[in-house]
């Protein structure tokens, strides 16, 4: 009886210390996860931007080849993807972040291609006529002031 009581007390003490050890290791690990989760999200966004920039660089090369074969002319606005089909794989026509295609600007404002806003958070990838692919920071949407709303 006394041996059983001592063994029961020993088990309770051991299980209590194990719970304390588990708690002491679980709290720092969970704190690390809380800190690292946003960092992993940012890394994924950056990786998608790199993939998008690679696609735009390939598209710049395909535009150059198309222009060389068509006396310096850009592809028509309608069916530009079909016009570039023999110069580029179809996978490069889709942004890895949004799974949507790029918007063809046909050289307006010295821009060839843009992507849907907010594919990469506050950044948008753009392909310029000179072949540069660049991430541009989008301006936040402006909210009208209450005074302006009151006048209307």
Helices and strands in order, then pairings?
Blueprint: H1 2-69, H2 80-83, E1 103-104, E2 111-114, E3 123-128, E4 133-137, H3 146-151
Antiparallel strand pairs: 1-2, 2-3, 3-4
Describe the model.
This protein has 152 residues and is of the alpha+beta class. The protein has a domain at 42-141. The protein is built from three helices and four strands. Strand 3 (123-128) and strand 4 form a beta hairpin. Residues 3-11 and 148-152 have low confidence and may be disordered.
Structural class: alpha+beta
Q: Helicity level, as a percent range? A: 40-55%
Q: What series of H and E elements makes up the topology?
A: HHEEEEH
Low-confidence stretches: 3-11, 148-152
Shape: elongated
On the 0 to 100 scale, the average pLDDT is 77
Largest sheet: 4 strands, antiparallel
Individual helix count? 3
Distance between the termini: 88 Å
Radius of gyration: 29 Å
Which labels suit this protein?
3 helices; single chain; 11% strand; 152 residues; alpha+beta; 4 strands
Quick structural gist:
By secondary structure, the protein is of the alpha+beta class.
């Amino acid at each position: 009886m006394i041996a059983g009581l001592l063994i029961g007390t020993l088990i309770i003490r051991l299980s209590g210390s194990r719970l304390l050890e588990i708690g002491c290791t679980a709290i720092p690990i969970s704190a690390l996860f809380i800190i690292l989760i946003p960092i992993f999200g940012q890394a994924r966004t950056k990786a998608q931007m790199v993939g998008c920039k690679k696609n735009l660089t390939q598209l710049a090369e395909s535009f150059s080849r198309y222009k060389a074969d068509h006396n310096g002319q850009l592809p028509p606005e309608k069916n530009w993807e079909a016009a570039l089909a023999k110069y580029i794989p179809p996978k490069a026509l889709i942004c890895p972040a949004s799974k949507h295609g790029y918007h063809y600007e046909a050289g307006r404002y010295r821009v060839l291609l843009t992507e849907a806003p907010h594919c990469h958070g506050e950044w948008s990838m753009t392909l310029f006529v000179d072949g540069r692919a660049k991430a541009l920071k989008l301006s936040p949407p402006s909210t009208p002031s209450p005074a302006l709303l009151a006048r209307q």
